[in-house]
Every structure is written in structure tokens, then in C-alpha cells.
Design goal:
Length: about 450
């Protein structure tokens, strides 16, 4: 346990004050929130129950912001006028329960930062595809010459950018955990890509609770705002029956014609947000291939059309985009075997999309921290495309139970190196080795990036 020595008298004594902001979690969002809060004149204290990395310790020390690591000192937290919490801290955490019982406001970094900027926001959420869609949308807007930032669940902290920069627009990737702590925040353009079972351990294992969290993306919207959603997504459509939509709506679909929004017909995307101003583009021209990426491209394309960007700019950007690391990332081809890093697939639906896009036999590396996964939706794809499963996790029993009748070989491994070597031996020329875990990474790795990087390093050693 450690406490930074730059504590001021107010912090030392634990005195309450209307001007005291406590930040729980000293990662990217927490450190950014601390910077902005300090800039706005608050008495700031940062507390992290885990170990604060050297990068963020150095940032806090440079700003002379007091902090503690590997502990929560209640006397220094419960006296806050407001708490900004990391999305990773659940509402059931003891310190959060005590704060709520005291009537202390607990908000997300996004909620706090939005108070201090007049920039417009494009907010993108969904169980799958939100990082890719956020990056593609940012790419299109930036190429069109907009003064735009990228933040939220991706890139640099929103609060830090509000403190340091002056953007007119932000593209924000927003997770359900962030939405849970957003109250007065309003998205000018809200995008809901899909709702599939994910993080159910945080929502009492009830899909309707998780769906309600996702639908907070539309809260506070008016008829001057925009809501974009997938008309093919069953759970989204169910949620739309429950929640009142005030904003202008633009659905997208690959199965039916849409009057105002986007649809697919004869391998051509049609995007129409205003009469006589249609954008058409062949799916072969898209930088992102695969059915799920048609959806992502449609969503980004509607955003661009709503903002009245030129068709030529949108087409060029959608054709030149490079996808993110750890999302169906081609690593190498060795002995005729393709190695693909999809470590960002931390839920079953993401892995379904990955398998659906595969055109060869697959040796699938999967496993990790199971979040209440239902593997049934993978069974048909596993039967038709997967020749072997290499489990990468501490407890692989549920994967064995789910697929023991569907594949001949299921092997347990406990490191990225071991998993990669065994997958290489199980594959033959023309096959693909796909790391698409369907699970969180925290049993063996720091995060999904660490898992993906270790896999890539192991592939390069083959």
C-alpha cells in the first residue's frame, strides 16, 4: 500500500468540503478526470484499490495531485462533494455503497467532463463493433476537415482532452458501465449497434437490465438530436418498444429496405437521410469486410450523412480506413497458416462475428474469465468451421462441456506461447489460427491488449 506525499492540509484532516472531488481508479479516465477537476479549481484526491501504473503515478505527481494506491481510505473518500469513478468499479463495491448511502453524487468521467465543453458529441455503444465504428466515424469526420476528438472507451481520456484541447466534435465510444454513471449527459448523435448478452455478471444475469443500461445512450435527447440503430437486432427492437425515443431515428439493415437510414441491396449500401441526397457504395469498396462490418460501416455512414459531409469524402474514408489492433488483426502467415489476433473479442457474440467471417478451417484459441457466457450460439459455426479448440485460461470446464461433441480436439493451455505453439501443430496449410477468446482476459493477462500482444509475440517466435 502506498500514499503519495503531496497531501494538503484539507486532505490530511479528511475535512469535508463542497469543493472536494474524489476520483476512484487511477487509469486513463481517472487520471484525466483528476487533471480536469484540478484545472477547474476542485480539491482533488485520487484513490485506487489496485496498483497504479508508473505512467499514471508520474502524471499525478507532475500535477501535485494527492493519491493513494492499493487501498481506499474511507476518511479521505466519504467526505467528497462528488465522486468520479472508474467504469470498472461495480455499484456493488463496498465503498460505492457507502457513498450512495451518504447521498454523495457518483458519476462517470464522461458525465463530469461534458460539463466543461460545448463540443457536440457522437456517442457510439453496442455489445460488439463499437470500437471499430468509433474509429471509422472519427476517421471520416477528421478526413472531412472537422475539428474532432476521439475518446471514451478508446484513446485518450475525454476529461484530459477537455482540459487540454478545444474540439468542436467528439466521437465517444461509450460502454454500458459508463452509461450507468451518466445522468444529465446528452448525446447529440447516439448510435446503438446491437444488444447481445455481455457483462451479465454486472446486471444480475438479466439481459433486460443490460439492455436498459445500453438504452441510456438516448437519455435527455430531444427532437433536435439523432438516434441511429440496427433494425435487424432483435434485442434493440425489443428495447425500442419500452423506451420512448424523442430524437430523429435512422435505422440500418442488411435484410430490408429502409426509407430513411441505410440498407443493403445487391451488394450495394444505400444511405439516405434526406430526400434526393443518397450515398451508394459497393461493399467490395469497403475497407472493412465481413457482414458485421457492413453494419459498422452503415452506422458510420449515417453519422456522416447526418452531418452533411460530402459523399466523395465519405466513400474515400470508408475505403481507406485501417482497422484497430486486436480486432481480426492479421498477424502473419507461417507455413501457409494464417494467424489472426481477435483478442478484443471478450464476449461470445464477438467470437461469433469472427468465426462467421472465416472462409477456411479454423483452430480456435478461446477462454479466459467467463462472464456468464452462453456458448450455444457458437455451436453451428464451431461444427462447420472449427477443427480444434485450444483453451487459454485457468478454468476451461464450460468450454469443454459446450463443445466436446462438436470438435475432436480440445486442449488446455495456460500461456499465450503454449497456446500458439499447440495451435500451430494442430493446423495445416490453408487453415487459420484464430485467437478469439469470447472471455475476459484477467485470469492470465493484464487486459485484452496484453493477451493480444503476447499472442503476436508468440507467433513471431514460431
Amino acid at each position: 500500500m502506498s500514499t503519495n506525499q503531496n497531501t494538503n492540509d484539507n486532505t490530511k484532516s479528511g475535512m469535508a468540503g463542497q469543493n472536494r472531488v474524489v476520483i476512484l481508479g487511477a487509469g486513463e479516465s481517472g487520471t484525466g478526470a483528476a487533471k480536469l477537476a484540478q484545472q477547474k479549481g476542485f480539491d482533488v484526491f485520487v484513490s485506487d484499490y489496485g496498483v497504479i501504473t508508473d505512467k499514471y503515478k508520474a502524471a499525478l505527481e507532475k500535477l501535485a495531485i494527492p493519491f493513494e494506491s492499493e487501498q481506499h481510505t474511507e476518511a479521505l473518500i466519504l467526505n467528497a462533494s462528488e465522486v468520479i469513478k472508474s467504469p470498472g468499479i461495480p455499484a456493488t463495491a463496498p465503498i460505492i455503497k457507502k457513498l450512495v448511502a451518504k447521498g454523495v453524487s457518483v458519476v462517470s468521467e464522461i458525465e463530469f467532463a461534458k460539463r466543461y465543453t460545448n463540443a457536440k458529441t457522437v456517442c457510439i455503444t453496442g455489445s460488439n463493433g463499437k470500437s471499430t465504428t468509433s474509429l471509422l466515424t472519427y476517421h471520416i469526420l477528421k478526413n472531412a476537415g472537422l475539428n474532432v476528438g476521439l475518446a471514451g472507451n478508446i484513446g485518450s481520456s475525454f476529461a484530459a482532452q477537455v482540459a487540454d484541447k478545444s474540439f468542436d466534435w467528439y466521437v465517444l465510444e461509450v460502454s454500458s458501465f459508463m452509461l450507468d454513471d451518466m445522468f444529465k449527459f446528452k448525446a447529440d448523435v447516439a448510435v446503438l449497434l446491437n444488444i447481445t448478452p455481455d457483462h451479465l455478471d454486472r446486471y444480475d444475469y438479466k439481459l433486460e437490465n443490460y439492455a436498459a443500461s445500453k438504452m441510456r445512450i438516448i437519455q435527455n435527447q430531444t427532437n433536435n438530436d439523432v438516434f441511429i440503430y440496427c433494425a435487424d437486432d432483435e434485442e434493440s427492437l425489443k428495447a425500442l418498444q419500452i423506451f420512448r425515443i424523442e430524437a430523429k431515428t435512422y435505422p440500418f439493415s442488411i435484410t430490408k429496405k429502409i426509407e430513411s437510414g441505410a440498407y443493403l441491396e445487391h451488394n450495394t449500401i444505400h444511405i439516405l437521410t434526406e430526400p434526393n441526397k443518397e450515398l451508394t457504395m459497393s461493399i467490395t469498396e469497403l475497407a472493412l469486410q465481413g457482414k458485421h462490418n457492413i453494419y459498422n460501416s452503415m452506422a458510420s455512414g449515417i453519422v456522416a450523412k447526418v452531418l452533411e459531409l460530402r459523399n466523395e469524402t465519405i466513400r474515400e474514408s470508408m475505403g481507406s480506413f485501417k482497422n484497430i489492433e486486436h480486432r481480426l488483426e492479421h498477424v502473419a502467415k507461417i507455413s501457409g497458416i494464417d494467424f489472426i489476433n481477435d483478442s478484443k473479442a471478450t464476449n461470445v457474440n464477438s467470437t461469433w462475428y469472427a468465426l462467421e467471417s472465416m472462409t477456411t478451417d479454423v483452430v480456435l484459441i478461446m477462454g479466459g474469465v467467463d462472464k456468464g457466457n452462453d456458448y450455444n450460439m457458437l455451436k453451428d459455426l464451431v461444427k462447420s468451421k472449427v477443427k480444434a479448440i485450444v483453451c487459454l485460461g485457468k478454468d476451461n470446464k464450460r468450454i469443454h462441456d459446450a463443445f466436446e461433441d462438436d470438435v475432436e480436439v480440445i486442449v488446455n493451455t495456460f500461456s499465450a506461447e503454449e497456446a500458439t505453439q499447440i495451435a500451430f501443430h494442430l493446423a495445416k496449410r490453408g487453415d487459420a489460427v484464430l485467437l478469439s477468446p469470447a472471455c475476459a482476459s484477467f485470469d492470465l493477462f493484464k487486459n485484452y491488449e496484453d493477451r493480444g500482444n503476447q499472442f503476436k509475440a508468440a507467433v513471431k517466435e514460431l
